[in-house]
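To: structure subgroup
Subject: Chain for Friday's discussion

All,

I'm putting the inputs and outputs inline so they're searchable in the archive.
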Amino acid sequence: MNKAQDTPIQAFIRKAILLLGITLLMLLVMNISPALPIIQEAFHDHSNPKLYVMILFTIPSLALGIFSPICGKFVDIVGRKPTFIISLIVYAISGTAPVFLNSLEEIIISRFILGISTATISTATMTLMTDYYTGKEREVMMSLKSVFVGLGGLVFLITGGILAHYSWRAPFFLDLFPLLLVIPAWIFLYEPKIEKKQLDKHTLPPIPWKPIVRLLAVTFFIKMMIYIVPMKLPFLLKDIFETPPGTNGVILAFGTVSSTIAAFFFPNVRKYASHHQIFTVCLFSLAIGFFCFSNATTYPEIFTGLIFLGIAFGWTVPNASVLVAELTPLQSRGFMMGILTSCLFMGQFLTPFVVYPIESICGLEGECGVFGFYSYCIFAVALYFLYKAITKKQTYLQ
């Protein structure tokens, strides 16, 4: 099977498989997030249950950050389709293992394996998207990818919360979901082929590391700044409005909704703006959002900040994904998608290790001070990008 022989139904199913596969990035953490307090209670006899529960929650992100480039190379060597299907099965096994495990250490190990399988699934999925689709169709797929990630986060968060009412183990059953994709993936996905003769006659261009490193750096920076919000905003809301945890979840979900809407309009934005200009807008939006949080005294100011945060979050990933695909030769695309995934999740994992030391060194007081400090840092980077866009005919990224 190949794309040229597709019927409309086959093309639709193939897109659905890839888009549902990418939602596993959110299933990774969202399904058990509401259950963390009762998991901690269930292991109250452990020497340090609070620390170990936080580790089992974040350890998949560490695995993603470390293994994504390796998985990307594996995808290039072994093939996109077989690694995708095998990883779906490994995901289901390692994801549901905590249902049967009785120690936090064993659960952490299973979650680490889950992170490795997710790294492979994510890399294979994004690589297949960039292989199957080109031009505007690729931009639409990357936009839909971000939309599905946002919607998946909402669905898995709500469903995990409902299941957590019955048992701390129940949300882990959601990790059986990828098994539903195995047979359709085997039938409807195909392995992109590179003609050997073509490779012999024409030397493919080398990987342009200079613009790619710049791209990865700004993507890492934006994602690291974005993850300050779920880490600090609940404390800000508690200090100002004394909101309960349930209300905090609803408010943070508004940011997810706004990012989903922003991602939906990404293809339209790309018609009028370059990749560099979009990153510049993302940086300014993020700075404005942080500034709103730092001066917030009412809920409308919080929601305004979340709208600007949603623009930054919703456009950064599809913009970076499309640009990596455009810059990278086909035979190295899986590896580069793995590196991009690594940057995204290492930014998430390293956020607390960067933020807290800077808070101590700079003597920042309260969450308002933190958001205010970083709003100026982000604004400075945004001005640099704006300067490069104005003074150079060729953009900083390209």
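Points worth raising on Friday:
The longest helix spans residues 49-78.
DSSP finds 17 helices and no strands in the chain.

D.
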